[in-house]
Design goal:
Elements (H helix, E strand, L loop, with lengths): L15 H10 L3 E5 L3 H14 L3 E6 H7 L4 H14 L6 E8 L2 H9 L4 E4 L6 H15 L5 E6 L4 E3 L2 E3 L7 H11 L3 E4 L20 H10 L5 E3 L7 H9 L12 H8 L3 E6 L1 H17 L6 H24 L12
Parallel strand pairs: 1-2, 1-10, 2-3, 3-4, 4-5, 5-8, 8-9, 9-10
Antiparallel strand pairs: 6-7
C-alpha cells in the first residue's frame, strides 16, 4: 500500500498566506506547470534566485505521466533546494484543473498542499455542489482550494472548450459564500494553449469584468488561467530548428501586468514553459544531430525556461524580492 502523508511533512505551504501577502503588496504569485524533473528545477531555481513565492502545478495528465507517488517528492526536493540556497520562499504543490472529487482526494492524500476543482463545465448549481464537497474534504487537512466560474476557450491537457464564457460578476459573491473556496479562477479573456488568438487580433483582457468582480468580493484572491504570453522568440526558434508551430499568439505582457496590480493573486503559466523547453531541445538537436546524452539537451532546455521565467517574475508578476533571494554561486 502506498504511504500517504500531509504536505507539511514535506515542507510545502498552502496558498492562504501567499495570497494574503500578494494582495497586500500588489503582485501575483507565479503558478508554473511542470511535466518532468528538469522543468521543476527550472521553476524553483528561477523563483528562489528571484525571491519569489511559487506554486508548482501539475495537471492530472502530468501527474499520471510522472507518477502520483513521485510528484510530492519533487515538491519536497524543490523546498530542500530553496532552503539549501538560503531562500525562504514558500512552495506550494497544486493540482491544476482537478476533474472530480476522487482525484482531489487522491492528491491531498499524497501530499498536495493546494487543489483546484474545475466545475466550470457544469451548470451553476452543480458547480457550487461539487466545489463545496471538495472544500469540505480539503479543509480537513488545511489544504487550500481554488474554484472556477466562467469558461476559458482553448486546449490544455484534458481541458478543452471551443467557446469563451466570461465570468458573471453577479455570481461570484454567492459562489464564494456557498462553497467556501480560498481563491477563484475567473474568465476575462485569457485562453488555454499556444493558439489563443489569430494573427491580426488585438488581444484585450476584460479588465472591466475583473474590476466588477473585485467590487463584489473585495480582497478575495483572484486567479487567471491561460495566461502564457507565447513568446515569438521561442516559436521562431522551434520553427527554425525543424518544428512547426503556426499562428501562435498569447496574452500581451502589458495586459497581464495590469491584472497583477489588482486583486489577481495567482497567474497560471504552462504553454510558455513548454515552448521554451522545446525550443532549447530542438536547437541542440539541429546544431548537433549526433547528440544523445540527455544532459546535453535537457540542460540547455532547462536554462532557457529558467531564464525566461526570471524575466517574467520581474516584468509581469512583480513578485521579485517578496522573500529572501537564493545565494547564487
Amino acid at each position: 500500500m502506498t504511504r500517504k502523508f500531509n504536505y507539511k511533512e514535506l515542507g510545502l505551504s498552502n496558498t492562504r498566506e501567499m495570497f494574503k501577502k500578494a494582495n497586500e503588496e500588489g503582485y501575483a504569485v507565479p503558478a508554473f506547470n511542470f511535466n518532468n524533473m528538469e522543468q521543476m528545477q527550472a521553476i524553483v531555481e528561477a523563483c528562489a534566485e528571484m525571491g519569489s513565492p511559487v506554486i508548482l502545478q501539475v495537471s492530472k495528465g502530468a501527474s499520471n505521466y510522472i507518477g502520483l507517488e513521485m510528484v510530492p517528492f519533487l515538491g519536497e526536493a524543490a523546498v530542500s533546494y530553496a532552503r539549501a540556497k538560503g531562500s525562504d520562499i514558500p512552495v506550494a504543490l497544486h493540482l491544476d484543473h482537478g476533474p472530480d472529487l476522487a482525484t482531489i482526494k487522491d492528491c491531498i492524500d499524497h501530499g498536495f498542499s493546494s487543489v483546484m476543482i474545475d466545475g466550470s463545465h457544469y451548470d451553476y448549481e452543480d458547480n457550487v455542489k461539487y466545489t463545496k464537497e471538495a472544500v469540505e474534504y480539503a479543509h480537513k487537512f488545511d489544504v487550500t482550494v481554488e474554484g472556477e466560474l466562467g469558461v476559458l476557450a482553448g486546449i490544455e491537457d484534458d481541458v478543452e472548450a471551443e467557446e469563451h464564457v466570461y465570468t458573471k460578476p453577479e455570481e461570484v459573491e454567492d459562489f464564494v459564500s456557498k462553497t467556501g473556496v480560498d481563491s477563484l479562477a475567473i474568465a476575462i479573456g485569457t485562453s488555454h494553449g499556444a493558439h489563443k488568438f489569430k494573427p491580426g487580433d488585438d488581444p484585450k483582457l476584460r479588465l472591466d469584468v475583473l474590476a466588477d468582480v473585485e467590487k463584489k468580493i473585495p480582497g478575495f484572491p483572484i486567479v487567471l488561467h491561460g495566461s502564457s504570453a507565447v513568446p515569438a522568440k521561442f516559436v521562431k526558434m522551434i520553427n527554425e530548428n525543424g518544428g512547426k508551430i503556426a499562428d501562435a499568439i498569447g496574452i500581451p505582457n502589458d495586459q497581464l501586468r495590469g491584472a497583477t496590480k489588482s486583486a489577481v493573486a495567482k497567474i497560471n503559466v504552462d504553454t510558455d514553459g513548454r515552448l521554451a523547453f522545446t525550443a532549447g531541445i530542438r536547437k541542440v538537436f539541429a546544431e548537433n544531430p549526433s547528440e544523445f546524452d540527455p544532459r546535453k539537451y535537457l540542460g540547455p532546455a532547462k536554462k532557457l525556461m529558467k531564464d525566461y521565467y526570471k524575466e517574467k517574475i520581474q516584468d509581469i508578476f512583480g513578485s521579485e524580492g517578496a522573500y529572501k533571494k537564493a545565494e547564487v554561486r
